């Protein structure tokens, strides 16, 4: 119960990594507020799973691309659960597209969700933590894509590099308030974002062969690293980045 009696907020938590992390934090004793965009049924299912573990949960709808959503999410979470101890910025999109004919709206939407959304969400959570006066932990889901390129991800990889950089700068800006800021860099995780891309069995097999642990990741693989960074076990860890990729990055040669 590493997060007993803590309140954890997770963005983009109606499915995938966000949902797994939200439920995983509840297993470790946390009450959880989740942000979701459109998947009402998924959000309700996540809340039900958290409550089944004996913890409190609330789902608050909002588009993270809109700055006002960040304030509404944090204020709603505090109203329902009392405070913010841990904030997990997870919401993100990756509509695969070639570079030379990238539509401006696709680039801009990806930037607004992944980068602008992270900035304003983290800012809102940090302000609440400063107001509370007893520190906290902020964790952002960056990606292995912050470190490597992708032919159909020229709009996506810069946002993930930006999220990594945001955590490094926030670690400096917020350290004096006792707020730790760290980034997780997942490798290829089986989620809705890449299900169409990995429907190509040849590509999936190729990807699996590049991973030393021999398999693609699952959303639950991010739970342990998140709980660690959220907990007091990581009380002297800030400004750090952790690859959660089955060894893929070190095998890219």
TrEMBL record:
E.C. no: 1.1.1.378
GO biological process: fatty acid biosynthetic process; rhamnose catabolic process
This protein's record includes keyword Secreted: no
Keywords, ordered alphabetically: NADP, Oxidoreductase, Rhamnose metabolism
GO molecular function, one term: quinone binding
Pathways involved: Carbohydrate degradation; L-rhamnose degradation
SUPFAM superfamilies on file: NAD(P)-binding Rossmann-fold domains
InterPro entries: NAD(P)-bd_dom_sf, SDR_fam
Catalytic activity field: L-rhamnofuranose + NAD(+) = L-rhamnono-1,4-lactone + NADH + H(+); L-rhamnofuranose + NADP(+) = L-rhamnono-1,4-lactone + NADPH + H(+)
Domain of life: Bacteria
Entry similarity comment: Belongs to the short-chain dehydrogenases/reductases (SDR) family.
NCBIfam families the record matches: PRK07231.1
Name of protein: L-rhamnose 1-dehydrogenase (NAD(P)(+))
């Amino acid at each position: 119960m590493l997060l007993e009696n803590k309140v954890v907020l997770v963005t983009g938590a109606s499915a995938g990594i966000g949902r797994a992390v939200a439920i995983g934090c509840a297993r470790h004793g946390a009450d959880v507020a989740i942000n979701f965009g459109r998947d009402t049924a998924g959000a309700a299912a996540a809340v039900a799973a958290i409550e089944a573990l004996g913890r409190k949960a609330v789902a608050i709808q909002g588009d993270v691309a809109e700055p006002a959503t960040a304030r509404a999410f944090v204020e709603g979470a505090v109203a329902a659960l009392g405070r913010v101890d841990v904030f997990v910025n997870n919401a993100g999109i990756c509509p695969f597209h070639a570079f030379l004919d990238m539509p401006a709206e696709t680039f801009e939407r990806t930037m607004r969700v992944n980068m602008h959304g992270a900035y304003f969400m983290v800012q809102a959570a940090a302000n609440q933590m400063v107001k509370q006066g007893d520190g906290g932990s902020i964790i952002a889901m960056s990606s292995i894509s912050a470190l490597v390129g992708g032919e159909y991800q020229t709009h996506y990889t810069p946002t993930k590099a930006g999220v990594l950089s945001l955590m490094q700068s926030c670690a400096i800006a917020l350290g004096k308030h006792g707020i730790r800021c760290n980034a997780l860099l997942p490798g290829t995780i089986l989620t809705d974002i890449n299900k169409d891309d990995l429907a190509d069995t040849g590509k999936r097999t190729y990807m699996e062969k590049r991973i030393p642990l021999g398999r693609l990741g699952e959303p639950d693989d991010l739970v342990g690293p998140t709980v660690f960074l959220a907990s007091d076990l990581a009380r002297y860890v800030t400004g750090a980045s952790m690859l959660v990729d089955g060894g893929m990055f070190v095998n890219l040669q």
